Amino acid sequence: MSILTPFKNLMQRFQPKMMAVGINHNAELSEKDAFISRQIPKPKPAEGELLVKISASSVNPIDIKTRVNYHLDGIFKVLGLDAVGEVEALGKNVDDFVVGDQVFYTGTQPQIGTNAQYQVIKAALVAHAPRELSASQAAAMPLTSITAYDILHQAFGLTVERDSVQDKTLLIINGAGGVGSILIQLAKYIGLTVIATAGNKESRAWEEGLGADHVLDYHEDLAGQLSKLGYPKVDYIANLQDTDAYWDLMVNTIKPFGRIAGIVTNTKPVDIGALKEIGAQFTWVFILARGNFNHNLQEQGDILTKIATLLDEGELKSTATKFYQGLSVESLKQATKIVEGHHTLGKVVIDYQEDEQ
């Protein structure tokens, strides 16, 4: 044993702690210990980082995927990517934020997640939170907004400015979920004609309320419905539901030189060659790729700055629809159950400020 070991143990004993909710195995949600709470060391910001006291977070499908595929049994992992909170401390060389700023962001997979009282986050990924939204309303927005923006800008090559696109049509497969709900709004903002799919009256009403020009019933023949509307072919397709199930539809519906974006991994081979003859493109959009590969992180913060402005100006509205109170095993379990049921309109949020409404 090193002579320094007792001193290290003593320092760890008196290191500030924080409460976090996480997992330590790939449990089914029905299991009693699917989530557990622990006291863990409160982090300190390194160079280029912020320490944020988290006010609210939201649950995303990637959180569920991470939980069910977790194989490091016995090792505690905190999930959660989206957050809104207050800057409590700054690392060196942080110029765009000060202590006390209200910020929002989505994090990266390797780090301790947002289901905790505090988190350190690279400043490049962060933006000042919308002033006109509550913490809970803003917490719904980061991951899905960046994904929607990337679909329009990176995958489709469009400029995300008001009425920058004319006479172009976008088909959104699954317009009622988190990404679809903000994509409808951003697409309308830039001037696209938006056709979205829905599975029930509630989803249809939700999508129409967000601005969709047409809503199709995905239980029925989508190609036939598109033709009846006068759009047998479309310029852009965003598949936010099931790449395998809708591949043939997309290939047969996209216009020559059109563009398709997907966010859900295929489980079997797809015939990408079918797009060659018409010069169409397919692009994967995965928001976490920037953080995972430390690629152009500032772009993510810049996108959120633009989203915050559009929210404050009323061009976009929050997609938060369900709210749970308090950072706890029970609130996270209930919020996750809603998202895992695949029938969510918009986003599910957890407000950590139990004494505030």
Automatic annotation (TrEMBL):
SMART domains: PKS_ER (SM00829). It comes from the Bacteria. The keyword Transmembrane helix does not apply. Keywords: Metal-binding, Oxidoreductase, Zinc. The keyword Metal-binding applies. Coiled coil: none annotated. InterPro entries: ADH-like_C (IPR013149), ADH-like_N (IPR013154), ADH_Zn_typ-1 (IPR014182), ER (IPR020843), GroES-like_sf (IPR011032), Lipid_raft_assoc_Zn_ADH (IPR052585), NAD(P)-bd_dom_sf (IPR036291), Quin_OxRdtase/zeta-crystal_CS (IPR002364). It holds the Pfam family ADH_N. One of its GO terms (molecular function) is oxidoreductase activity. Residues 28-350 form the Enoyl reductase (ER) domain. Belongs to the zinc-containing alcohol dehydrogenase family. Quinone oxidoreductase subfamily. This is Zinc-type alcohol dehydrogenase-like protein.
